[in-house]
């Protein structure tokens, strides 16, 4: 009986793996068509600047409008596209689309674009970004590229030279998802970031978590000491907003300020509850 069970377990496992690989191949095939058929779209999420209570920038977030499966979130296809190399084509589309929309619709606000490790390391990436900027007519200082730490660990010297090249063109660089993955404080001093984005995992439940509070406070102080802006990601609650401001975060991103939306549905102003909190800070604890 045990033997029987064992064999069934093995068969299940085998079928499970086959399933997974088949689904992955299907997804890759669908992804090939997606670019051709224009099934991708960008949503934009506002980032609130505390010092002047304005929306200083928007992050471009990709969505896949799948013909059968509906709207698919990036977590469900970006990793596959990264593995297959399809992220290179997708990444080029994202950059062009984000720059075009920013130049036409976002006024003085900046646009933030996520860049995947493979894309960043592709030969000629910095020049391709410059060409895309030129095509759009957007000033380079209004583009920010968001990269993650795992992109830095493989080849420090090469990553640093690409970052320097982008910075020399006037493009801003933000370190995304700070605090998860292979975080090393060393990266902060070695790489020329304009902004650090503190990951949402340090924000959730911060009003009841002394450890998370200490981390945010320390990261904010360190970031400022290194001349970087500090952004808090994933703010959903008013008490989280108050704490992040109190701990010195310069910018706030999260559902409380605005959800990612298509450009036509985007709200350009600060929602009233957030405005009220900012107003209550004036002349009180608000620094700069
Ligand atoms: P990310 O760059 O860290 O983007 C922030 C994610 O947090 C977004 O998820 C956003 O919708 C979500 N978020 C923002 N505020 C809140 C909040 O208050 N609460 C909660 N629960 N979530 C919030 P999204 O759009 O699903 O994107 C997930 C990840 O996919 C992104 O994380 C980024 O790593 C990747 N991604 C998205 N678009 C692109 C793209 O165009 N290119 C590449 N390479 N990666 C992308
Ligand atoms: Mg991001
Ligand atoms: Mg992030
Ligand atoms: Mg992320």
From TrEMBL:
Record family assignment: Belongs to the ammonia transporter channel (TC 1.A.11.2) family.
Organism: Polymorphum gilvum (strain LMG 25793 / CGMCC 1.9160 / SL003B-26A1)
Name the record gives this protein: Ammonium transporter, putative
Subcellular location: Membrane
Superkingdom per UniProt: Bacteria
Domain EAL: 24-274
